[in-house]
Design brief:
Elements lengths: L2 H13 L6 H10 L6 E8 L5 E7 L10 H8 L6 H9 L3 E4 H4 L4 H9 L4 E10 L4 E10 L7 H9 L1 H15 L10 H7 L7 H12 L3 H8 L3 H15 L4 H12 L10 H7 L2
Antiparallel strand pairs: 1-2, 1-5, 3-4, 4-5
InterPro entries: Sig_transdc_resp-reg_C-effctor, Tscrpt_reg_LuxR_C, WH-like_DNA-bd_sf
Protein name: DNA-binding transcriptional regulator, CsgD family
GO molecular function: DNA binding
Length: 274
């Protein structure tokens, strides 16, 4: 990191608060500290689709997420993104590494759906702006790149508060709530299994969808390993499914439906149709 480049980039970033150049300058500032293959700036919203505010990538497709899989993420699959869930479930703010916050079987469970990304390492900031919205900066390395080093993460972690302050000022000055399509994807997840499963089975089902293993679910719920296995067996018996991967595939298939009915248990609807 060149100190003069860092200082100049920080001055430029600060001066661009409230302007259309802010996101580009934020990328330029971070690029004086670390190298990355992609930087996304997203707005999470519990009641609306995730909004892409800015994208930089070495693939040349800046300011856009290309392809059907990326569209699915922004309109549907974001609901199971560990960064989004950390905000939606716990209203957390801070600097995080994906491998530290993701459920223990997330990579395995979702490799089929997100293998087009080929992510080697992923870091992210979460800046909740109100009860329903969160400003998210996502930094990734792909392919043959090396994971972010401990020094990289330490530097970025120290920037959490300054970047939160600048981004909050930017959003306030810009006063840009954005045109965001209303979404009930979060509602679909929350109600999935609520009517057909017992309370404990429902909790296990929700954790399975997020990518937790049997061992992890037992620890989270403070119940025995065999008890979790029993709940899983009951879930699969009631739903005519046989595995966590089939449960996940069913949920993702339901997410692709148009329109998505609100305040209903889509798992119950599925079972009733069998």
């Amino acid at each position: 990191m060149q100190l003069d480049q860092y200082s100049n980039a920080l001055i430029t970033l600060t001066q661009s608060v409230g302007t259309a150049a802010y996101y580009q300058n934020l990328k330029n500032f971070l690029a004086t500290i670390i190298t990355f293959d992609e930087l996304l700036i997203l707005q999470f919203n519990r009641a609306a689709n995730t909004r892409l505010l800015y994208r930089y990538a070495t693939d040349g497709n800046e300011d856009s997420l290309s392809g059907e899989e990326s569209w699915k993420y922004l309109t549907r699959l974001y609901v199971l993104d560990p960064f989004y869930r950390l905000f939606a479930d716990k209203n957390r703010s801070g600097f995080f590494q994906l491998s530290e916050i993701a459920p223990d079987e997330f990579a395995t469970s979702y490799s089929h759906y997100f293998n087009f990304l080929n992510v080697v390492d992923e870091l992210g900031y979460l800046f909740p702006t109100d009860n329903d919205r969160c400003f998210h900066i996502d930094i990734s390395r792909f392919g043959d790149a090396q994971p972010f080093s401990a020094a990289d993460k330490a530097l970025l972690s120290q920037l959490y508060q300054p970047l939160q302050n600048l981004s909050s000022m930017h959003l306030t000055k810009l006063d840009d709530t954005g045109i965001n399509n209303d979404s009930n994807v979060e509602n679909v997840l929350v109600n999935f299994g609520r009517e057909i499963l017992t309370k404990k089975e429902y909790q296990v089902c929700q954790l399975l969808l997020q990518g937790h293993s049997t061992k992890a679910i037992a620890a989270i719920m403070a119940i025995g390993y065999e008890t979790v296995k029993m709940h899983k067996k009951n879930i699969y018996g009631k739903t005519f499914l046989s595995s966590q991967s089939e449960l996940l595939a069913l949920f993702i298939d339901i997410l692709q439906q148009e329109p998505l009915a609100n305040d209903v248990d889509h798992l119950l609807i599925y079972v009733s149709d069998q």
